[in-house]
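Fold this complex.
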Amino acid sequence: MAHAYTPGLKVLHESKVKKDRILPLKGDVLVEKDATVTPDDIVARTHLPGNVQMLNVANSLNIDPTDVKDVMLKQPGDALKKGDMMAETKGLFGLFKSNVVAPLDCTLESISPVTGQVVLRDAPIPVEIDAYMRGTVSEVLPEEGVIIEADAVFIQGIFGIGGESRGELVVLTDTREDELTADMIQAEHAGKVLVGGSFLSLAAYKKALAMKVAGVVVGGFNYFDLEEILGYTLGVAITGSENLVTSLVLTEGYGKIRMGSRTFDLLKRHEGKFTSINGATQIRAGVIRPEIVIPLKPEDLKGDAQVAKVNEGIQAGSLVRVIRAPYFGRIGTVISLPAPLHKMESETMVRVAEIKIDDEVMTIPRANLEMVETD
Amino acid sequence: MTGKQLKTILATDCGSTTTKAILIELTDQGYRLKTRGEAPTTVEAPFEDVTKGVLNAIMEVEELSGLKILDGDQIIHPMKDENTGVDVYVSTSSAGGGLQMMVAGVVKAMTGESAERAALGAGSIVMDVLASNDGRLPHQKIERIRQLRPDMILLSGGINGGTVSHVVELAEVLAAANPKPRLGQNYKLPVIFAGNNKAQKNIEDTLGEITDLDIIENIRPVLEVENLGPARDKIHDLFMEHVMAQAPGYKKLMSWTDAPIMPTPGAVGFLIEMVAKKENISVVGVDIGGATTDIFSVFEGQFNRTVSANLGMSYSVCNVLAEATLENVLRWVPIDIDEGELTNRIGNKMIRPTTVPQSLEELIIEQAIAREALRLSFIQHKSFAVKLKGVQQERTISDAFDQSGSGETLVNMMELDLLVGSGGVLSHAPRREQAMRMLIDAFVPEGITQLAVDSIFMMPQLGVMANIENSDIGESARNAAVEVFENDCLIRLGTCLAPIGRTKPGQTLLTAEFDLPDTGKKVVELKYGEIIVIPAPYTGIKAKLTPGKNLDIGKGKGEVLDTEVFGGTVGLILDGRGRPFELSHEKSQRIENLRKWSDSTNEYPNTKALGGA
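Structure:
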């Protein structure tokens, strides 16, 4: 049977979700294998080397770089407090001495006889990694981190901003077509993850930020409004490090686009549950999509969890979403995948699929289709 | 010919998304492209082995050619018989983000720029240029190095015998940052020192232990000379030894190839440089991709390459919009369009980068963005491709009014002989006329310039073939690369004839007389503001070109030029829009002009049907 490979976003009602919680440098793992963790539990900790400052002692004392070693009172490896004397000249008959003091609490790292510079390093910077979602520690990577595993609802968005966040899931719109408006967002929504339908206006997002909402999941948002939130024009889709109180996950794209029905229904079904979301997106090689994870309790499980679904590509009968104008956002079923190249209105010769959308058959380039991967 | 005559050559290019394979065969007409195949690149999870994608692409070549190339997971080479195996297998790679470097020099505009030129020429992306005079404090430099995590660092600085302390200071900054390589936590970062020879010992003392240090000849031994060859070669070696060896599956791939794997842009640059040298012409080559736009040029025999890292047609399409502004993109669109909706559409292309334009409107918008991405990349290229800075020049009285000197751009559009475009939006434009128009509108060639596109983007594979050093097969592979480049790779679009200067609308800019092969003599009057296309094949056509008063077609103002021009799939394009070229600022006039030019060049089917002003 003909099939084609297309990207697809996962909308899974029950899945074994695994999350790597890895330190940027080697350090200490604080939990053991099979331990149960909650999102705020610290699972690993390390210290990044402190920032470095360079100080030209030769220039400060007006001496030759080769003489710096002779005037140093401290040596590499010594700890210094702010104001400690590091170097002092002999002066003239013991008078008119000049000196250099440490500008901060630091460790003296090196002394250069060529340039007369000394390298000073700040105190180490502590880094802690939390568990992000409720689950169990399925694997411990000694000195590096852990892998947390949970049976959960797993939904991928198409684009997001803001990093990891979590809170109780609250669905604010009645249908997936409705817009999530500013007046729906109230003070009681602080720390919660809100779900809307087709669109979030700039005003509504600003209200969510002001109310300290943990996150918003919605169909669409205007591209040109991002600039006001981020403070710069987003040129490439690499996000996640923005310092935002409210993370945003778009399930469909830019503009007003109703949320996919399966996504909306699934979120609605789990309203009230504790949810972890991450807006981090990277659309480059090694693509990262934003995600919504709702860990399930044993009583919620139906026992048909999937570890990883191999993308088998679209084929006749597949449910697909059109991801480019002129039929952007519409969902249909593949009828056939004709082999010959087809000439589109743009005169581009492409491989196409015949799709049935609302009883109408349309010919769409395969590259403009996205598999709706459900379970 | 010395060495072995090759019958079949297999070459692959492992891109960040697609792995492309080409098969070249020796036929009665010389070396020709037999077939091609492609498959998704498999560097990332879940496969994490680049060779899987390579094998898939080769399997497609096998199916299409009928040749048996694979024996299980092995490429059969050399050839066993007529139908089994290939003589040579080579590959390029830009998978996993290509080669990412930081470079450092004492003076940003001198050794810093030379180091940047060497790294770019070797096919690298330059993440940052550190210099003693770049205005940043040491701790800011250190923070930047730590944050970027390059694959490799090229450190230069000082002429031979010059002062030592500045370059050692840079080395101390590097040592303090103690950067870790991007790939492979467990090995030391490769650092190449190509600076003042007097500083070598000090650099060894500062960086020898904590990095994998290589010391080579100075990149700028004296101010007047740039010596990029050794640095470029060393970068290629280290790319293979360190960077590639860390990427999943590359060790296996390296064991298969008959010549070292080259970074993709390095191979393309090598090919363009070779063609320019062989034909003794000035060339500009451009490759516009999804994330970046690479520009290569050879003027006055000097090669330059720039990468505009965030000017591309999909992953970074929104950055083109941000840098060019919406107004500049819209000035190429001959229809009225809602601006808010347009930005959302462009945003959606960024987050779903593999989609293709289905409607004519989408195609027009995409090609408008391409014009701006190309234009901006070329501006960057022109400011980088300059004569050496810091060189003292002797001036005579005749130079008194000539302000040119060190740091002047090498790019001279009047001197440009050939402009080659490649990348999806140019190579796969539904009509070749569209590719030609995009190139002309973005690069604004002056005088007489030939234009071509790379049919299926096989310049990387041909570049690596041309670079084989093995004496036994090198010459034959080089010939194959040149022949296939001429016959199968380049699609000759034709020649653009654009007089320099401007005049009043309706006045004659140029009178051209052509001796066409089929229809004989043809005289054309080009009026100001119009574009005329004369269909003509790719063959030498005698031309007598008489520019109007104060206008120049290549020989000087008002001077008649007798020359030979070449047609192509589009033909001869006479561009009467004047130089410098500017679009009307009045919307309805601009749209009317765009439609007139579109119709006269057969660019789009029917723009009027799309509505608008």
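Residues 17 and 41 of chain B are 5 Å apart (CA to CA).
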